[in-house]
Design goal:
Layout (H helix, E strand, L loop, with lengths): L15 E7 L2 E5 L3 E3 L5 E7 L5 E9 L7 E7 L2 E8 L12 E5 L4 E8 L6 E11 L1
Antiparallel strand pairs: 1-2, 2-10, 3-10, 4-9, 5-8, 5-10, 6-7, 6-9
């Protein structure tokens, strides 16, 4: 959602892959999304308005499957964060949330892909931040 507010009939506390503004805060909650190896699945997708966001994002794999997963955060089509999580990742090479600044007028896309299984694994993603 661009520019703040909610569409007619929108739920300001609801789930949306879009960015929602409330005062000087912004958030996006993906809701539950099944992620398999069939394609890259969109967890979040939005464009920022005329302000920057100082925030953090997190991805939750609720399946307990242990499948290898790839997550990519892109700004304007350029990868800014590439995360690989798998059963062999015994050293916890990344931790969520990841702090990030999102510039004004930026297209944001967060995707996930299961590297192993065609079975869908339950995922959610969250982004929260302060608008400047």
């Amino acid at each position: 959602m661009l520019g703040g507010g909610n569409p007619v009939g929108g739920n300001p506390a609801g789930v949306s892959k879009n960015l929602i503004y409330i005062g000087n805060r912004a958030y996006a909650y993906s809701g539950e999304i099944g992620v398999s190896n069939v394609a890259d699945f969109t967890l979040l997708e939005f464009e920022t308005g005329a302000s920057s966001i100082d925030g953090s994002f997190a991805i939750q794999n609720g399946s307990g499957s242990g499948d290898d997963m790839r997550y990519i955060l892109s700004f304007n089509g350029e990868r800014v964060c590439h995360i690989y999580s798998g059963t062999s990742d015994v050293f916890n090479q990344f931790q969520f949330p990841i702090n990030i600044i999102i510039p004004a007028f930026t297209s944001v896309l967060l995707t996930a892909k299961n590297q192993v299984s065609s079975s869908e694994r339950s995922h959610t993603a969250t982004l929260t931040g302060k608008v400047f």
